[in-house]
Automatic annotation (TrEMBL):
Domain of life: Eukaryota
Protein name according to UniProt: Laminin G domain-containing protein
Keywords in alphabetical order: Signal
Residues of the signal peptide: 1-19
Length: 387
């Protein structure tokens, strides 16, 4: 193992500087390790839905929940939980058909009555601005933003794609919306919400990872031990397109034999986005539509510096991939071109590593950052805006 590690670390690394590197298929030892690390991701990281049905067809709970009653979440009004698609869906699309009629079968704050007694109608609580209530069940909703709301003051929930939450009718309505194109996981949120993004309430399913010190020492980050990960179902099947960016802080170590920082693949699903660390070096990239065969190892193993926290950003502007490390000029790689491929594996953070590592301030946007955007996010934690 040590011989392999030394061989990898003495490979020719790309210097940090300007320039355009023509992409070439890697044929070296590190390419084999790169593939092996990604393919070692456990199969259920891609195929196992991180949620399971709750008390009825309108509720769902995190897989492996230790307190289902407390962690249970409710689908938007009129929708039911579809385990097959791992999402809230229209009842007519849930199999077998007829299994879910939300108005009649969902146990949503309904008062139960003993036989022979008089039913007591539920009542709505006092409502504040941006709140509404369904009198039949006394279920009340608090609007968070155009696409998200809370049910009875519980966890944030989102409308189906393409819909807005209306606080007059208490329903998600199907007119066109323009969602925020960025998502940010700062891991600084209050206990229970650390794995929810700070912009649109996109959930990440935590698989044993823990909140720890962040890159500033005064903030929080997330700490991964062997096989621990965070899975984000939102990106399963997502179309990343021809313009894409992500930025994050990672804590590296010269003792690191190999870590998957993030990936949406494993042995059975070909990844289309990936970053891998070995020691204090990092590699990765994106797989695009015109590649034959598709491959994410665009940036070979590249030195970041000494042990400790490092900033990494990756931007794609068809056909150019740029990678920023700390405050160095970008490394630029020319792709064959086309949109970043999608697959139905959720995006996994961590999941395959030998020593431990930490991550902080993960931001993913559906547009290309420029150098100023990268610097503002790195230095000031300012989420870039699409103008």
């Amino acid at each position: 193992m040590m011989v392999i590690l030394i061989s990898i670390l003495v490979m020719v690394l790309i210097g940090l500087g300007d320039g355009l590197e023509k992409r070439q298929a890697p044929q070296n030892l590190f390419a084999l390790q790169y593939r092996g690390l990604i393919e070692n991701m456990e199969p259920k990281a891609c195929f196992e839905c991180p949620w399971i049905p709750g008390k009825d067809c309108c509720h769902f709970v995190p897989l492996g929940s230790v307190d289902p009653e407390k962690e249970e979440r409710q689908c938007p009004p009129g929708l039911g939980w579809n385990q097959e698609t791992c999402n809230c869906d229209w009842p007519s699309l849930i199999k077998p058909k007829g299994i879910c009629e939300p108005l009649y079968t969902c146990n949503i704050n309904v008062t139960t009555v003993n036989p022979g007694t008089t039913a007591v109608a539920p009542t709505c609580p006092p409502l504040f601005e941006n709140e509404c209530c369904i009198p039949e069940t006394a279920t009340w909703y608090s609007k968070i933003n155009d696409t998200h709301y809370r049910v009875n003051g519980s966890y944030p929930q989102g409308c189906p794609e393409g819909m807005n939450f209306d606080d007059i009718s208490c329903c998600c309505l199907g007119y066109t919306i323009v969602p925020d194109p960025c998502k940010l996981w700062s891991f600084d949120r209050e206990a229970g919400n650390e794995f929810t993004d700070s912009i649109q309430q996109t959930f990440g399913q935590n698989v044993r990872s823990t909140i720890s010190d962040g890159h500033l020492g005064t903030d929080k980050g997330v700490f991964f031990q062997n096989q621990e990960r965070i899975s984000i179902p939102y990106f399963a099947g997502a179309y990343f397109g021809k313009w894409f960016s992500l930025g994050l802080w990672v804590k590296s170590s010269s003792n690191n034999f190999g870590t998957v920082v993030l990936s949406n693949g494993n042995r059975e699903v070909k990844e289309t986005i990936a970053l891998v660390m070995v020691g204090n070096s990092i590699a990765g990239g994106v797989a695009t539509a015109k590649e034959d065969p598709p491959n994410t190892l665009d940036m070979p193993l590249t030195a970041m510096g000494d042990d400790g926290w490092h900033f990494v950003a990756m931007t794609y502007d068809d056909p150019i991939l740029s990678v920023y490390i700390d405050n160095n000029p970008p490394l630029v790689f020319e792709q064959e071109g086309g949109g970043i491929l999608s697959n139905f594996c959720q995006l996994n953070l961590g999941g395959v590593q030998f020593p431990n590592f930490s991550m902080d301030e993960l931001c993913i946007c559906e547009f290309t950052w420029n150098a100023t955007d990268v610097a503002e996010f790195r230095d000031n934690k300012a989420v870039p805006k699409l103008y």
